[in-house]
Amino acid sequence: MKVDILEFVEGARKAKGVAVIIDVFRAFSVACYAVDSGAVKIIATSEVSGAFQLKKKYINSVLVGERDEKKIEGFDLGNSPTEIIKTDLTGKTVIHTTTAGTQGLVHAVNADIVLTGSLVNSGAIVRYIKTLNPDHVSLVAMGYRATISAEEDLLCAELIATELKNKNFITGKKITDLQNTSGRRFFNPANIDYSPPTDFFLCTMINRFDFILNATRRDDGNIDLTRMDV
User: Fold this and answer.
1) Total domains, the chain
2) Closest Cα partner for 48 from 15, 25, 10, 79?
3) Cα separation of 62 and 98, whole Å?
4) pTM attached to this predicted model
5) Bridge partners for 223 per DSSP
6) CA distance from start to end of the chain
7) Is residue 223 part of a domain?
């Protein structure tokens, strides 16, 4: 099994085999919490305008997402797990768009299988990939705004890569250190309305969930995310 670590939208385009599109802070942590909160479907889209169009088609739906980290005007929820866990999404379709994560899903056009990646379900991702035993795995760290390397996404990629080789990866201090690097924005009082400290802790709860989110391309070019228990 060959494992590559790639970055950004360019990396998503190059991904082949089994691709794991990683966005720890916060898109694919949010997606896991949304499913855990009862959402029956998540539709990932790259454009805000596309999200509003999907909202018209799915009556029992909620708009979730961000631009510049903040909730988009007219959306129901921001890209915040803290908001998600306070919301009953039972039976709802979540329409999700973000600056980095959902862009990666849309552009992973050369992969055979596409999964979302986050720390909160990294163990399930590893178990699932091992059952497939593919020749090639592409771990795509989407980074901050899909343009700047992000320590949390690379950490998640390294964790998955190491465990796919049946080796242990020690995360404790590495997680704590994120508070002083890419995660420090969650502890800035100026950001508390849209990036609260609780988001940091919810996004770094390793293996909180025992399911993966499988990404399937729709006829309209958007992406359906489907839960699969592992």
Assistant:
1) 1
2) 79
3) 14
4) 0.97
5) 44, 217
6) 20
7) no
DSSP character for 177? H
Range(s) of the domain holding residue 139: 2-217
| Rounded Cα–Cα distance for residues 132 and 155 (Å) | 23
**pLDDT tens track for 135-150:** 999 999 999 999 999 9
**The residue to which tokens 């969930």 are assigned:** 209
Q: What is the CATH number of the domain that holds 144?
A: 3.90.1560.10
Q: Do 119 and 156 form a contact (C-beta atoms < 8 A)?
A: yes
Residues 225 and 32 sit within 8 Å (Cβ to Cβ)? no
Residue 128 is assigned to a structural domain of this protein? yes
Using alpha carbons only, give the angle 73, 52, 94 rounded to the nearest 5 degrees: 90
**What's the one-letter identity of residue 106?**
V
In a domain, 224, yes or no: no
Q: What does the DSSP 8-state code read for residue 135?
A: S
Give me the phi and psi of 196, to 5 degrees please.
-75, 160
Residues 6+ positions from 43 with CB-CB distance below 8 Å: 54, 58, 93, 94, 95, 96, 218, 222, 223, 224, 225
Q: What is the pLDDT of residues 76-100, one digit of tens each?
A: 999 999 999 999 999 999 999 999 9
Residue carrying structure tokens 């950004």: 8
